[in-house]
Design a protein that fits this description.
Number of helices: 13
Helix content: 40-55%
Structural class: alpha/beta
Strand content: 5-15%
Order of helices and strands: EHHHEHEHEHEHEEHEHEHEHEHH
Distance between the termini: 33 Å
Radius of gyration: 18 Å
Number of strands: 11
Largest sheet: 6 strands, parallel
Length: about 350
Amino acid sequence: MSKQTTPLVFDGHNDVLLKLYLAGGKSAASTFLSGRDGAIDLPKAQTGGFAGGFFAVYVPSPIDADDKMEEMAKPSYDLPLPDPIDWEDALPVALAQIAILFDLQDRGALTVCRTAGQIREVLAAGKMAAILHIEGAEAIDPDLYTLEVLYQAGLRSIGPVWSRPTIFGHGVPFRYPSTPDIGDGLTDHGLRLVRRCNELGVMIDLSHLNEAGFWDVARHSTQPLVATHSNAQAICPHSRNLTDKQLAAIRESDGMVGLNFAVAFLRDDGRMLADVPLTQMLRHLDHLIDHLGEDRVGIGSDYDGAVVPKDLTSCAGLPKLIQAMAQHGYDDVLITKICHENWLRVLEKTWGA
């Protein structure tokens, strides 16, 4: 496909802020502009047509990443969840990552957007558009004061959990094979978080939430149900993936799902191995489109936060996926919807016109 006909990609999830935080914080921000050893930076974005997306703020747990990767490469596994993180410990880390995001804006690398209209304007100007997103609400206090302040700073999307438990709910462990039907649903704090996010117009991200929590959000939220980076349980029976019943609820709410590039959630065998052909990603896209419709499927790469297919190791490779969609028979209209239009549609519906 020619560069002129390749649509821009607006992505449901990345962890570049965490990587910059671990690399030195604001002092490492310049590498985002010049080029860094990672999946997303400005040079790679310009090559691949990566136009921005949800920039996650994530507070890491002290885990051995090598041990985790080795365990998830096995035919079956059940990793224990890390311990909860207290608000007092989480907030400084979250604020440091948010400061990096705004430093990138000050450097002219991106624009933090608060409305769907602003995203459209930034994309039309050839710039990178960013949504301030929190993955795991450890940095939000039980009285939701932090939510109010961060909303004023630009927060427009939040996941109540990143797998490990919070005061708001419970996530799924990294378990294969497994359904997401693991543990209790939202707490009373979690239900209040959902209500206040609805009132503010903050999108609630269902990725990482267990099935009981999913149904609690479905019952209590007035907004579209959205999983920013999740795949089809019917193809890969991993705890992180969505059942067809969950997909039906998302469709009924007029929400959407972003295709996760993490190989353990793509492969039929659930293993964290990078030799995943693009045809396997298209199998998930086909399933999601069949169950959600063409207006409710997007991309949620999990770049800089996961092992991804070897053909898509950075956002510079995104045209390969777009070309694979075209060769698979998706027309230009559908490809454009998957690449960015569906995200803009659901954000307009969630945030208001």
